[in-house]
Amino acid sequence: MTTPYRIVLCTWPADRSPLELAGRLVESGLAACVNVVPGITSVYRWQDRVAQDGEQLLLIKTREDAIPGLEKAILHAHPYELPELVAVAIESGLEDYLDWMEKNIK
Questions:
Q1: Burial tier of 53 (Cβ tally within 10 Å: 0-12, 13-18, 19+)
Q2: What does DSSP assign to residue 95?
Q3: Which residues contact 47 (CB under 8 A, 6 or more apart)?
Q4: Burial of 96 (0-12, 13-18, 19+ CB in 10 A)
Q5: For residue 63, what are the domain limits?
């Protein structure tokens, strides 16, 4: 059974800090936690060419009903024309952790 919790994946340029955005997401209750994973390389097609860039991956722990506000906040702050925003359902998890998430998402 799927829970109401989601992990939102969002890439961010390697040469810019996402920490201000991550802090705002947690402070506002749109996310319980944001992990910043540095040092990834993305290979993708953009404007009819294959591109390769250094990026960081944001793993944003949230609830499904918070995603519209989360998307709005990310789109406002993100430097990309088309940022990656992909939500993945959390099928199950440690009950105490999920309870903690619930208490920290408004």
A1: middle
A2: H
A3: none
A4: exposed
A5: 5-104
**Helix, strand, coil tally for the chain in percent (to 5):** 30, 40, 30
CATH number for the domain spanning 70: value is 3.30.70.120
H or E element, residue 16: none
Cβ atoms of residues 87 and 6 within 8 Å: yes
C-alpha 48/C-alpha 56 separation (Å) is 23
| Torsion of Cα atoms, 60 then 42 then 73 then 27, to 10° | 40
Q: Which two tokens stand for residue 8?
A: 């939102």
Per-residue pLDDT of the chain (106 residues; tens, 9 = 90+): 789 999 999 999 999 999 999 999 999 999 999 999 999 999 999 999 999 999 999 999 999 999 999 999 999 999 999 999 999 999 999 999 999 999 999 9
Is the whole-model pTM more than 0.90? yes
**Domain count for the chain:** 1
